[in-house]
Every structure is written in C-alpha cells, then in structure tokens.
Specification:
The protein is an alpha/beta fold. Helices cover 46% and strands 15% of the residues. α1 (2-15) packs across α3 (34-46), α4 (48-58) crosses α5 (68-83) and α6 (88-101) packs across α7 (108-129).
Length: 423
C-alpha cells in the first residue's frame, strides 16, 4: 500500500495527474486495503508542502527529479509518523520495505535514515517549520497570498479548514424517502448520523463510510453530496412545468437534486461538453430513477444544440479554481497554478454571456462556483451586471451574494448568486 500510495503521489506531483482518477485506475491493492491506501495518498497530498519542506531539511542534498517516486515514498513515510495511528517502528520498517516494491530498493538505507532522523529531531524540526508559511499552512506561497488578499480576517481559518478531513454529507431522495425515516434506517444499520439544520435534504454522517454500504444507496434512496451543493435546488425557485437547463451538469448531483425537489418540472436539459463525464450523469440518474435529456455539447456554443425555446431556469455551476473543495481534493494545492485562475475567470464570463440570451424574461439564472475567490464570485457577478442591462441580482444572501467558506456549518466552500431577467 505504501509503495502504491507513493507511486500515485508521484504521478500527481510529477505528471500532474488528478489524484481521484489515478486512484480509481489503480488495481494494485486489494479492496480490503483501499481505505488505508486512500488515507496514505490523500494525507501525503494534503500535507505535501509541509512534508516536502521537512525532506529538504532532513536530506544533506536534494533529490534529483528522476527520484520523484523516492521523494513521494519519503513523504508517505513522514506522514505516518505525524498524522496516522501507526506505531513508529511499524511505519519505518514498512516504508523501508516499500522502497523495494517501488523499485528503489537501492535507497532503503536513505529511507531508513531520513525517517529515523525525523524521530530524533522531531520537536526542533516542527518548531522551525512553524516559522515557514508554506510548511506551517501546507499551501503553496502564491495560494496563501491570494487567499490572504481576499480574506484578510479569516485567511488562517480558511487554510486550516482546507487541511481538515472532509465530513460525509448525504442527500436524501425525498421523492421516495422522508429524511427522518432514512435517519432511522441508518441507525438500524449502526451508522451514526444527524439531520442538517440548514439543508432540508441533508444528513451528516459521523464516520465516513463507503457509499455502497449505505442502506438504500443502490436503489436510489440517498446520494453523497456536500451540504453547500444541496442549496442550489432551493435557490432555483422551481415550479411545475418549468423548462430547466443545467449547463455544466457533470457529474449530475445537482441535476438529480433538481428533479428530486420538484417532480413536476416540465423539462430538464443536462448539458456537458465532456462525453465521459456525461456518462456519470446518466448513471446517477438511472440509479435514482430519474429522467432528463442529456446533451453532449459546449455551453459556449448554443447555436450547436439549442432549439430556440427559452429556459425558465438555468443553473450555471461554472468551471472554477475549486479552491472551496481543497479538503476533498488536496491535489488542487499541487495542480492549480495562478494562470488557471485567469483562465477560469475568462471562461466564467464567457459562459454567463453565452447563456443569458437563452433565459426567458422573468426567468432566473443561478450562478454557482465551489471557490472562495472574489474575482470568480462577487466581482465576476458585478462585472456581468455592469454589462447586462436586463439582469437583476435578487439573492440568495445580502446584498445578493452568498459565500460559504470551507468548514462553515461543516460545508464546503461555495458561492451562489441569483440573476433574474427583467420581464
């Protein structure tokens, strides 16, 4: 498991592969061991910048780029000694043995020496690390600066939330199951959980578990979806007979929630330009017993797919920097670059401009992102309002924007703005 965790970790850091897809493609570990593999991988990504700084302090000379997998194994080893309930001697010996399985057996002595030196110098090393921002907060310096610039009062809390393990949220399919009854089912199965006070369909599970182990999951009684994402359906102000577009629909959680929330919708079009991700929408809807029209197309080019009939509601869950969901996807801290932010801002503006003409007078476009940056959120909407005469910001918060920061009410970082078109 340690060797496989290091191999995938190196793929993220060196080859810029998304961790989730790399982990899903891994068949080297038995199913019973995958929870430990996931903990090793995601922990070493979550604390990457701290662990990497520590390696630099513990080595007499830096490793070469060709030693990416060895560096990853050292990060996995150091993680075990600081953030996992594994006896120190077991963590050291298992990590040293993993060097052979990883194909870097020649470095067994180096791995052993680095880990044992950490144990000897732990307190002094951790104290020095607290004086280095990248190590202390385990974020890249550029990202610390960006977040601090936007959130002067709360940036430390935000960074700490990014490094916390994410809670498990469930969304009850209220078409077929009452939330109170589903809570009873969970307790009958020995799963401790509580109803959310802020999300009508939401349940927080005390100890995360595999989705397929949940009662009724396969038959569509429940889905896994963060509480912040579950707010979208309520902000859409849905009603019987309305024609709805989910413009960037994959993987389909919000599409499904719209259908669950208002069974009498006239039509729901789920659009995505990624055919493979659109398949995930199809699978989610099938599991839940829901139907929508799936369209493989680019929301930026309505002429290629729109039939000319206006939509009463449009959900634009816009592509973004995803800085509000780092706690679920810690590889974001490694993969994201400042240039990615510029590209996201540009794409969001073009999507707003492309989709607005498709909205009927009196209709609503809900703009949503899973980021915390003002330039992608409130400032993006302010620029849109400045160039769009028939757009009115109506909520959901005051003064018309709702920004949830990571960890608030146990939710992910999310942003919402309701844009109504003047009749």
């Amino acid at each position: 498991m340690r060797a496989e965790a290091a191999r995938i970790n190196a793929g993220v850091v060196r080859d810029r592969l998304p961790a989730e897809s790399a982990l899903a493609a891994s068949a080297a570990v038995a199913e019973r061991d995958r929870s430990l593999l996931r903990a090793l991988l995601y922990g070493s990504l979550r604390w990457h910048h701290r662990l990497q700084w520590q390696i630099g302090e513990l080595l007499t000379r830096p490793l070469a780029r060709k030693d990416a997998e060895l560096a990853a194994l050292l990060r996995v080893g150091l993680l075990q000694l600081q953030a996992m309930r594994i006896p120190e001697h077991a963590a050291v010996s298992a990590t040293v043995e993993a060097s052979r399985l990883l194909g870097v057996g020649h470095a067994r002595g180096l791995v052993n020496a680095v880990l044992r030196r950490f144990l000897r110098e732990r307190d002094e090393l951790l104290g020095r690390g607290d004086l280095v921002e990248e190590a202390h907060f385990s974020h890249p310096a550029w990202l610390i600066a960006v977040i601090r610039g936007d959130w002067v009062e709360s940036w430390r809390r935000l960074l700490a939330a990014n490094n916390a393990p994410p809670p498990m949220w469930l969304r009850v399919n209220t078409r077929v199951m009452e939330r109170a009854r589903y809570l009873e089912r969970l307790r009958e199965c020995g799963i401790d959980a509580n109803a959310s006070s802020s999300v009508a369909s939401g349940i927080l599970v005390t100890e995360p578990c595999a989705a397929k182990s949940l009662p009724g999951y396969v038959s569509g009684e429940v889905s896994v979806q963060d509480g912040a994402a579950q707010l979208a359906a309520g902000f859409m102000n849905l009603g019987t007979g309305l024609r709805v577009l989910d413009a960037c629909a994959a993987p389909g959680g919000k599409t499904a929630h719209l259908l669950e929330s208002c069974p009498g919708l006239g039509a729901v079009i789920a659009l995505d330009r990624d055919a493979e991700r659109l398949d995930s929408v199809r699978e989610n809807l099938a599991r839940l017993g829901l139907e929508a029209t799936l369209v493989h197309a680019d929301a930026l080019a309505p002429r290629d797919w729109w039939d000319g009939r206006p939509f009463d509601r449009i959900l634009l869950d816009a592509p973004c920097s995803a800085l509000g969901v780092i706690r679920r996807h810690p590889d974001i801290k490694i993969l994201r670059t400042p240039d990615d932010l510029d590209r996201a801002v540009d794409l969001q503006a073009r999507l707003l401009d492309a989709l607005w003409p498709l909205l009927a007078p009196g209709g609503r476009l809900l703009y949503a992102t899973c980021t915390v940056l003002r330039r992608e959120n409130a400032e993006q909407i302010e620029r849109f309002l400045g160039r769009t005469a028939d757009a009115v910001l109506t909520g959901p918060g005051q003064p018309g924007h709702l920004q949830i920061l990571p960890g608030e009410a146990d939710m992910d970082g999310f942003y919402y703005a309701c844009l109504d078109k003047k009749p």
